[in-house]
Amino acid sequence: MGKTKLLAALIGAAVLLSACGGAESPEQVSKAFWQAVIEQDAGEANEYSTLIEDAAFDGYQRQWQGVDIEWGRVVIDGQQATVDTTFKGLPGRNQPLKTTTYLVKKDDQWLVDYFRTGEALNSGPLWGDVVNQLEALGKDLQTELARYSDDLAREFDVLTEELRQQAADAGESFSQLVDDYGRMLRQHIQELAQSLREALKDNPDASVEDRRMLNEAVIRLEEQNDALENPDVESVTESTRVALATELQLGELGPEFAAYKAEWQQRLAEMERELADYVDQLEQGN
Predict the structure, then answer these.
(1) Does residue 131 carry a pLDDT above 70?
(2) Does residue 175 surpass a pLDDT of 60?
(3) Among residues of the chain, what percentage have pLDDT more than 90?
(4) How many domains does the chain have?
(5) What is the residue range of 193's domain?
(6) Average model confidence (pLDDT) for the chain?
(7) CB distance 234 to 134 below 8 Å
(8) Which of 67, 130, 174, 234 is close enough to 170 for a disulfide, judged by CB 3.0 to 4.6 Å?
(9) Quick check: pTM over 0.85?
(10) Which residues are the signal sequence here (predicted)?
């Protein structure tokens, strides 16, 4: 075999090995995640789930030593998937526990939806109403944001339309202003997301609801941070709305987060001032 063919064969083998080495399918990711749970390996559980901090891992407050897992039907629906999961040998339970592992696809990678899977695990097999409740819980962030910020959302819809009209007739100065505000906003969101990570890490014993709120808030903010890499009218207005609404939502966290909430409230006031300055400059330039 010539050197060229040998090199091609080696490269091909390496590609195949790398493709087979990682957990990629919903079932593979589920298996890797639950193995990490059984071993109480927070870092691995984090890697294969939507957890954003190792400190948020609680093993679903169960003992997993000696538990066996059987895998069933896998259903993939767009960016979501479910894997039927049966646990045998759970302490204090004679019968197998049948439940569902929920997954979401983010950046082309399947991840176990940690909190939704935990809710299914602790809810038992009463599938009728439970499934409906889980669907509602899966949308709770949008519901909370809407409840907190109906007026805010309407104001931002109007603002976005006004900015679109200005952008259509504006020159370089308008674009530069959007860029400047976008960079400032991105820094604010990065700092807020980091603060939320620290709050989550410092309070591992907080309620499941509070840990879920923080975890999902970080995910949402980091998505907006990515959207601001190349800021435009739509991304800066939407990211501003999401950041403000998120900080308002965090007021529902428990008393152990009091110091953090004071810090977030100060950030909110600062961001509102920055937004007011931004809008004033836009109006002056029009």
Answers:
(1) no
(2) yes
(3) 21
(4) 2
(5) 140-285
(6) 76
(7) no
(8) 174
(9) no
(10) 1-23
Amino acid identity at 107: D
* Structure confidence by residue, pLDDT tens digits, 219-260: 889 888 898 888 887 888 888 888 878 877 888 888 888 888
Same domain, 116 and 188: no
pLDDT surpasses 60 at 180: yes
| Residue 135 placed within a domain | no
Does residue 118 sit in the same domain as residue 144?
A: no
Question: What DSSP state is assigned to residue 49?
Answer: B
Question: Tell me: the pLDDT tens digits for 20-64?
Answer: 345 689 999 999 999 999 999 999 999 999 998 887 888 888 889
Q: Of 65-74, 141-150, 191-200, which range is least confident?
A: 141-150
Examine the domain organization and report whether 161 and 191 are in the same domain.
Answer: yes
Please identify, among 71, 91, 124, the residue that sits at the C-terminal boundary of a domain.
Answer: 124
Q: What burial letters (b/e) apply to 90-117, b meaning 16+ CB within 10 Å?
A: beeeeeebebbbbbbeeeeebbbbbbbb
- Residue that the structure tokens 């409906």 belong to: 132
Q: How far is CA 214 from CA 221, 240, 249, 251, in A?
A: 10, 18, 10, 11
223, part of any domain: yes
Q: Does some domain include residue 157?
A: yes
Strand order in the sheet with 80-88: 68-77, 80-88, 97-106, 109-112
Q: What is the CA radius of gyration of the chain?
A: 23
Q: Are 279 and 145 part of one and the same domain?
A: yes
The DSSP code sequence of 194-211 is HHHHHHHHH-TTS-HHHH
Note whether 83 and 164 are same-domain residues.
no
Quote the Cα angle for 63-83-121, to 5°: 35
Q: Are residues 149 and 75 in the same domain?
A: no
Beta-ladder partners of 97: 87
Verify that 158 and 96 share a domain, yes or no: no
Classify strands 97-106 and 80-88 as parallel, antiparallel or unpaired. antiparallel
